[in-house]
Automatic annotation (TrEMBL):
GO terms for molecular function: arylsulfatase activity; metal ion binding. This is Sulfatase. Residues 38-355 form the Sulfatase N-terminal domain. Belongs to the sulfatase family. Residues 1-23 form the signal peptide. The keyword Signal applies. It comes from Paraflavisolibacter caeni. InterPro entries: Alkaline_phosphatase_core_sf, Sulfatase, Sulfatase_CS, Sulfatase_N. CDD domains: GALNS_like (cd16026). Keywords: Calcium, Hydrolase, Metal-binding, Signal.
Amino acid sequence: MKRIASFILGAVILACCFLSAGAKEPGPVNPPQPQRPPNVILILMDDMGYGDLECYGGFPYHTPEINKLASSGMRFTNFYVAQATCSASRSAILTGCYPNRIGVSGAFSPDNKIALNPDEETIAKLLKDRGYKTGMVGKWHLGQKVPFLPLNYGFDEFLGLPYSHDYWPVNYDGTPLDTTSVRGKWPTLRLIEGNEKGKAITTLEDASKLTTMYTERAISFIKKNKNNPFFLYLAHPMPHVPLAVSAKFKGKSGAGLFGDVMEEIDWSVGQIMKTLDANGLTKNTLVIFTSDNGPWLTYGNHAGNTGGLREGKGSAWDGGVKVPCIISWPGKIAAGNICNNMVASMDLLPTIMTVCNAKMPVKKIDGVNVWPLLSGVPNANPRDEFVYYYDRNSLKGIRKGQWKLVFPNISQTYKRTSAIGVDGWPGKYASDSVKLALYDLRTDPGETLDVKEKFPDIVTQLTEIADRYRNELGDDLTKKTGTEVRPAAKVTF
């Protein structure tokens, strides 16, 4: 009996061993490899207003491809750029800093004496260090010659223009200008490939080819790098004036030249997304679509739509700095979401670094990681403050939560008939004397009703916060010198 019991016990133990072994997953032949980090595509429009897209109320043209992008991800209703002008805004997007922190202001002209300092760590530089392939296509506007072109800021390749395509010796009707005028003395506008000057852009017909050319180059970059993590920065020149559209879209929208341009932009976004689909990249690509600032309203029917916000490009009012923004990443960002939280363009850099597991800049930045918003963390609110700087370094306003306090200043305005042009010709600039005012943006997004007398405690609170920014970043209006600012690069000719 003892022998039988021992046999049975041994059999049971052996069976248990086999059952235990069978319950485990078979081990991998090789150690598990880290998941490939996501690709990132940043599509930046030029002078596209808050109300220019169909999914933000734009009409009567149609933007179905951008509508699809919005429905696949998150659409932001309170997205702010750092300043309502080209170079300042673009520097903030790429570095995560308020432009005045890094010595940048305005829109750099062809003979500008400063450029973005190459010591600043851009999205491209940080992702390149992470092992990404990096490419830029389109408008740079942060330096017009070597060593201040994209290849010196982390991009592996570049095709585009050094600045806006209205910096050329061409009149508003497309005819050449002679050198007796300031604009006529500007150099011939040329495409740049890498660091080398290429084809001249001298006519509106030349300009009409830019959107398609840039789209095709962007597609080529995606296909070439589909087996590597990549960062693509596609900075379209439109709908900045002079408006120009390819033959395949000219007259097709039924909404004038501006509508034609918008529908070609929509086509471009569709081509990018179809390329991702065709190459199996959609689910591992973070796509960001936004604008550098609001519409240049002085161009009238060749300008965009603020969606009812006050003023536009060239001001510190919300029509100049509040723009559309859509972020999509299927499977990671819930589809069809709308985010009403305040987010700023400086927040793109730290957010991208977070999702790509890349290092943050060594020097101080102003952006915050907004991934909690994108990933649906309940009650997340990473940004609750935003300061409105304009001109060289003037603190014109501050927003906290729903409140915006505007400080006394002189502002560009479009509120006069003479300020609005037509058919590509600009109106005459006008200015307003702005007084201290408090606006409740929850009930008054158009900034029309001053409620400072009813909420003096809010005025006091926001003034105290503004003083902190003045001490750190400076303020020309109150003659403050910032303690934590860094110099731009100096350009010599």
